[in-house]
Specification:
two-stranded antiparallel sheet; single chain; eight-stranded mixed β-sheet; alpha/beta; Rossmann fold; 11 helices; globular; 390 residues
């Protein structure tokens, strides 16, 4: 494939003349985003210093005078700060937990002040590979490796800026659950209640393997250019590699049973796989790949995957048990019964180690696999209400 050819196809499915990156850029409509700018650099767990850190975030509701009603919602890998609200200028998709946040909902914004930051290393307004450095050039391939501890340190600065000393609840699933857990372990006195959804105490070899394959797919794209592609022009970003990564990931996010029930062995309408056409499940994955390439940044995907692979709550803390024993928050741990990426055994380890969880794992019943924590909002809402009622 010619790296200078616009519209280079990925897995036989052209991406079209997309911008080189789907990252939010200065000059784009801000939507509901606000920004926190950290004074001074952010010390990283690796020993480096990340200067000029900015976090994009959104809020719903009003902060109480004593700041006792603040809830922190943390997104998964390709999520962002837009937890609730319609799609529109500045927000290409509707809120990813729209059924949970709002008046009368589980996170009732007439009572609770809900805060959702875009993760450090992300691409929807927070500092990440698509962001400019002090010299005006983009970080691109030189962006440093991050861990959940780095990301939570940045989020703690946001909490300080908002005047929030202690969260009434911290909630997250998948990658967001990793950060929620890190909050409760590294800053236990700042978390009153904790809801961990479909996440582990440490990334397993299986999870690292799946993420590594996705990272390699992106880096193998000729348009990757060592991560320095952001200003290459329309059609010249690593869309093919990002699309392959998304196909791999989305397969692990759904259950085998759901894919079989929805698609089976059926060909896509009007296509014959024997003549170069696609099966329905292939068309579905192509659609997911194209959507992500239009709204996300490949280098952010790499940075965040590598941060997830580094997740180990017991690192330099005497092991998992010792780390989990530091959690002071009222805690519920929940997993999805059909999740093949983050299986219930990992949530059982969390519940066995967090004192207030008392070894009790709540099971979200769903045919949708890992994505069940996003889809089964009624079941998640019941857990949220239970924690906030205590």
């Amino acid at each position: 494939m010619n790296p200078d050819a616009p519209n280079a196809p990925g897995a036989g499915h052209p991406t079209g003349l997309l911008p080189a990156t789907g990252a939010w850029r200065e000059g784009d409509p801000p939507g509901r985003r606000r920004w926190y700018h950290r004074t001074g650099g952010l010390p990283l767990e690796s020993g480096g210093l990340l200067p000029g850190v900015t976090l994009a975030f959104e809020t719903w509701g009003r902060l109480a005078p004593d700041a006792s009603n603040a809830v922190l919602v943390l997104h998964a890998l390709t999520g962002d700060s837009h937890v609730a609200g319609p799609a529109g200028p500045g927000h290409p998709t509707a809120g990813w937990w729209d059924a949970l946040v709002g008046p009368g909902l589980a996170l009732d914004t007439d009572r609770w002040f809900v805060v959702a930051p875009n993760v450090l290393g992300g691409c929807q307004g927070s500092t990440g590979p698509a962001s400019p450095r002090s010299d005006g050039r983009r970080w691109a391939g030189s962006f440093p490796r991050l861990t959940q501890r780095d990301q939570v340190l940045a989020e703690a600065g946001l909490a300080d800026a908002l005047g929030i000393d202690r969260w009434a609840l911290v909630i997250g699933g998948s990658m967001g659950g990793m950060r929620a857990l890190e909050w409760a372990v590294s800053l236990p006195r700042r978390v009153a209640a904790l809801l961990l959804l479909a996440c582990p105490a440490a990334a397993s070899a299986d999870q690292i393997a799946w993420a590594s394959a996705q990272v390699h797919a992106i880096r193998a794209d000729p348009h990757w250019r060592g991560g320095d592609y952001h200003d290459a022009g329309p059609g010249r970003g690593p869309h093919a590699g990002l699309g392959i990564a998304r196909r791999i990931a989305h397969t692990t996010y759904r259950s085998a049973g759901e894919l079989e029930a929805r698609f089976g062995h059926r060909p896509q309408d009007g296509e014959d796989p024997w003549l170069g056409g696609r099966y329905q499940v292939e068309s579905y994955l192509d659609h997911q790949a194209a959507k992500l390439a239009a709204r996300f940044d490949a280098a952010s995907y790499v940075v965040l995957c590598e941060a997830m692979n580094a997740h180990d709550i017991g690192r330099s803390r005497g092991g998992t048990r010792a780390a989990l024993g530091r959690v002071e928050a009222r805690t519920l741990v929940a997993g999805v019964d059909s999740d093949r990426l983050y299986p219930l055994s990992q949530q059982e380890e969390l519940a066995a180690g967090v004192p207030s969880a008392k070894g009790n794992v709540r099971v979200i019943t769903s045919p949708f696999g890992h994505d069940g924590f996003l889809i089964e909002t009624r079941q998640v809402a019941a857990l949220v209400r239970e924690l906030l009622a205590r």
